[in-house]
TrEMBL record:
GO terms for cellular component: cytosol. This is Luciferase family oxidoreductase group 1. InterPro entries: Bact_Lucif_Oxidored, CmoO-like, Luciferase-like_dom, Luciferase-like_sf. To bacterial alkanal monooxygenase alpha and beta chains. Residues 11-306 form the Luciferase-like domain. One of its GO terms (molecular function) is oxidoreductase activity, acting on paired donors, with incorporation or reduction of molecular oxygen. SUPFAM superfamilies: Bacterial luciferase-like (SSF51679). It comes from Edaphobacter modestus. Gene3D superfamilies: Luciferase-like domain (3.20.20.30). CDD domains: Flavin_utilizing_monoxygenases. It holds the Pfam family Bac_luciferase.
Length: 343
């Protein structure tokens, strides 16, 4: 990545509201608000709020509920859903929710949507109003409808959409989130900003997902040019040893998740012991996630390398750390390494 490209790179926070062992949902959500205030003071560009269901380790089930308190506690940083899992909802209701937020906090609310369920099959079924049949695979139709609701009054009228007073004139900026080549095709065809989840699928760069998105991008009035973000795991500390201790909690959580065992974020001591014992088991699964762990210099280099791999305009940094103060310190060190300028 060139020096000029690095200087243009925006850094943002992707928050999954982790719940640590022995803690509570309320504490996790308050920690998210606290981290957002810190992120703004450090100079991060955007604060993304994820959606998960039925998990003891992830606290935010409804991004639209958490976005309001975060935006109210801050004054500059963009706050958005990373993302709303659209198949669970009515596109019209999603548009209403985010139009309200955009009207309360003009120019600061972004709406990121995704296709994944954010949970297991049983919980996904519980989220459906009609459980007699599996949910329809009509994400593209839902997304097109949502774009129409967030368009101009003339566009809504032309497509027979509900009256404009049901969707206010303050409308959020739309992003499509994905971890596959298909999501890039949709984002390009519909002219949406696009965020790729490298922290879920680390092969997006070699598969040229974002390259296809940029080449095939269809401009539209509200989005005249392509915009690409990539989300990465990164845990930073003053020393490599400390960073690896912090990362043990995340590694245990993900390994358990891969085998269908949902847990809260474990303490580093327990996680380190688990990892030692786990490595001795025959046929143990390898952790199927890419993570940058280390000192500020090492993490900065890793983030820049992944950003260059995707030619991204923005990097979303996500981490899961047992101790909230250590998690905040990680974001502080990364901000300092990149020379971010806060408020």
């Amino acid at each position: 990545m060139t020096k000029s490209a690095v200087s243009r790179l925006r850094l943002s926070v992707l928050d999954q509201s982790p719940i640590s062992e022995g803690s509570t949902l309320g504490t996790a959500l308050r920690n998210s608000i606290d981290l957002a205030v810190l992120a703004e003071s450090l100079g991060y560009h955007r604060y993304w709020v994820a959606e998960h269901h039925g998990s003891p380790g992830f606290g935010c089930m409804s991004p639209e509920i958490l976005i309001g308190p975060i935006a109210a506690a801050t004054s500059r940083i963009h706050v958005w859903s990373g993302g709303v899992m659209l198949p669970h909802y009515s596109p019209f209701k999603v548009a209403e929710n985010f139009s309200m937020l955009a009207s309360l906090f003009p120019g600061r609310i972004d709406l990121g949507v995704g296709r994944a369920s954010g949970t297991g099959r049983a919980t996904a079924l519980s989220l459906q109003r009609d459980r007699r049949l599996p949910p329809a695979d009509d994400f593209m139709d839902q997304l097109t409808e949502l774009i129409s609701y967030c368009g101009t009054e003339e566009q809504r009228r032309a497509q027979g959409m509900p009256p404009a007073n049901l969707v206010t004139h303050e409308r959020p900026h739309l992003w499509l989130l994905g971890s596959s080549a298909q999501s890039a095709v949709w984002a390009a065809d519909l002219g949406l900003s696009y965020a790729f989840a490298d922290f879920i699928n680390a092969h997006g760069g070699e598969d040229a997902v974002t390259e296809h998105y940029r080449e095939q991008f269809t401009p539209r009035a509200k989005q005249p040019k392509s915009e690409t973000a990539v989300a990465v795991w990164a845990i930073c500390a003053e020393t490599d040893a400390e960073a690896n201790v912090l990362a043990s909690s995340f590694k245990m959580l993900i390994l358990c998740l891969q085998r269908g065992d949902l847990i809260a974020v474990p303490a580093p001591q327990r996680a380190a012991q688990f990892l030692v014992e786990y490595a001795k088991r025959p046929g143990s699964l390898h952790m199927q996630r890419r993570i940058i762990v280390g000192t500020p210099e090492m993490v900065k280099s890793g983030i820049e390398a992944i950003a260059a791999e995707y030619d991204a305009d923005e990097v979303l940094i996500v981490n899961i750390v047992y101790d909230h103060s250590a998690r905040k310190r990680s974001y502080q060190l990364i901000a300092s390494a990149f020379g971010l300028v806060g408020t």
